[in-house]
Specification:
Largest sheet: none
Distance between the termini: 20 Å
Number of strands: 0
Order of helices and strands: HH
Structural class: mainly alpha
Radius of gyration: 15 Å
Helix content: 25-40%
Strand content: under 5%
Oligomer: single chain
Length: about 70
C-alpha cells in the first residue's frame, strides 16, 4: 500500500475545530485507483473491497488512538 499526502480544496468539519484553536488533520482511508478518480462525479463509486478495508482501517485507528489494541478485522 502506498501512502501519499495530498491537499484537498474541499471543506471539512475540521474547519470548526481549527477555528477554535484545535489542531485538526484529516485522514482519507479509502483505497482509490489513481487512474479512476471520480470525486463527486455522477457515478462516484468505490470497490466493495475498498470499503471493507477502509472500515477496518478506521476501526483500528480509532482503537489505537483510544489506547486499546486493535482486533483483527472480520
Amino acid at each position: 500500500m502506498r501512502v501519499q499526502p495530498t491537499m484537498s480544496r474541499g471543506a471539512s468539519d475540521g474547519s470548526y475545530t481549527r477555528t477554535a484553536g484545535i489542531p485538526t488533520y484529516t485522514l482519507w482511508h479509502v483505497p482509490l485507483d489513481p487512474g479512476d478518480m471520480r470525486a463527486h462525479g455522477r457515478d462516484e463509486r468505490i470497490l466493495g473491497k475498498s470499503f471493507d478495508e477502509s472500515v477496518g482501517f478506521a476501526r483500528n485507528l480509532i482503537r489505537e488512538a483510544a489506547g486499546t489494541a486493535p482486533r483483527d478485522a472480520p
